[in-house]
Amino acid sequence: MRPPYSELVAGWKALRARDDLTVREVACVGATRTLVVAEIAPPAGGSVVSLAAGMHGDEPAAPWALLSIVRDGLLDRRFGYRIWACVNPTGYERDTRENAEGDDINRSFDRGGRTPESRAIVTANRDRTFALSLDLHEDFEADGFYAYEPVVAGGSIFARALVATMDAEAFPVQDFTDDFDLAYPAEAQDLRTLERGCVFPNPDAERAFFAGTPYGLYMLRRSARRVGTLETPRKRAWNDRIAMHRAGVVTILDRLAGAQ
Ligand SMILES: [Zn+2]
After folding, report:
1. Average pLDDT over residues 134-162
2. First-to-final CA distance of the chain
3. Which of 73, 86, 182, 223 could cysteine-pair with 63, CB 3.0–4.6 Å?
4. Which CATH architecture has domain 5-259?
5. Separation of 22 CA from ligand 1 center, angstroms?
6. pTM confidence score
7. CB atoms within 10 A of CB 225
8. For the chain, which residues make up each domain, given as ranges?
């Protein structure tokens, strides 16, 4: 199950018939591709949440889950939204983690963006502030769902609630053992705390250990008060992965609304 990218774009453009959101394409300077971005205005006095999927092209359920969340009206309307439908279109088309130039976009958010895709996002986000930024991914090694929630102001607000949701819906939750690869360097293992289904990075300490800036760290530094990354197990059925992302985003938005 892996519909072509053109179908994903068509799905988003079909939403232009609705009057509560806009869907446009943002040019990537230095490349011929565009990124699809949808926006929903916040209610009076409301804050805005940034959502993204498809940063890694070989994690295809995430962008389809994001489309289904918007199409089916699952977004909490106490917030407005900026939605990056698929951050890595050329990677999606090629079924590769990296973009067409062979770069991992999720390591390119420093210095104003070092890939065409990250540059487009950084430019669009200039002077914008988001209450939360979520990024939907998939994991090849995982057997169950898990999420990253960097510790902000000494605490987390949604990661454990996500685990409770997945348990209630009988979806698998990832247990972390010593050999599970979170792509942290060996000397950086103490920079995050692990619980079942939850990774709590220490964002200040983490920065020094990545060669290029990941999206979540960039958002936390520049544009968002809190960030989260959702990971579904790529080895599970397509519909289960879609359902996990849907339940996860709904849970997080509800927790955010309660925390404000
Ligand atoms: Zn990923």
Report:
1. 95
2. 38
3. 86
4. 3-Layer(aba) Sandwich (3.40)
5. 26
6. 0.95
7. 16
8. 5-259
